[in-house]
Amino acid sequence: MKKNAQIKRIERFEEIFDELTAAKNALDSALENFYACGEKEKELEKYYTGKLWKRDFAADEAGLLPKELKRGVLSEDGVYNLLEELREFKERTNA
Q1: Do 10 and 3 contact (CB within 8 A), yes or no?
Q2: In b/e form, how buried is each residue of 35-64, taking b as 16+ CB within 10 angstroms?
Q3: Do the Cβ atoms of 95 and 32 come closer than 8 Å?
Q4: What is the pLDDT of residues 39-94, one digit of tens each?
Q5: How far is it, in rounded angstroms, from Cα 35 to Cα 37?
Q6: Scanning 1, 22, 48, 68, which has the fewest C-beta atoms within 10 Å of its C-beta?
Q7: Residue among 46, 7, 33 nearest 95 (CA)
Q8: What Cα–Cα distance (Å) separates residue 75 from each residue in 42, 69, 85?
Q9: Do the beta carbons of residue 45 and residue 73 sit within 8 Å?
Q10: SS (H, E, C) the chain
Q11: Domain spans of the chain, in order of start
Q12: Long-range pairs for 80-86 at CB < 8 Å and ≥24 separation?
């Protein structure tokens, strides 16, 4: 039995409705997580611009840290770029 145009239309828009609902819910969740990280962003920026980061960076450069230690935070550009991207995101979204 063929579906009539009305049924097909309702099904199509129901799919769109479901997809948009899921996208909105995912965005809500992501934004809640983003806003919850605000203090951590400030903490990271304080570390990155302070003496402790410079000390940790120098120790890494001198080979004094364990090789298996994850050290992305000691990347000269990594933290700077992340903080800039966060600032740009906030400007774009008025966050």
Answers
A1: no
A2: eeeeeeeeebbeebeeeebeebbeeeeeee
A3: no
A4: 999 999 999 999 999 999 999 999 999 999 999 999 989 999 999 999 999 999 88
A5: 5
A6: 1
A7: 33
A8: 18, 13, 15
A9: no
A10: CCCCHHHHHHHHHHHHHHHHHHHHHHHHHHHHHHHHCHHHHHHHHHHHCCHHHHHHHHHHHCCCCCCCCCCHHHCHHHHHHHHHHHHHHHHHHCC
A11: 1-36, 38-95
A12: 80/48, 82/44, 83/41, 83/44, 83/45, 83/48, 86/41
Q: In the prediction, which pLDDT does 86 show?
A: 94
pTM above 0.90, yes or no: no
N residues, the chain:
95
Model confidence pLDDT, tens digit, residues 23-39: 999 999 999 999 899 99
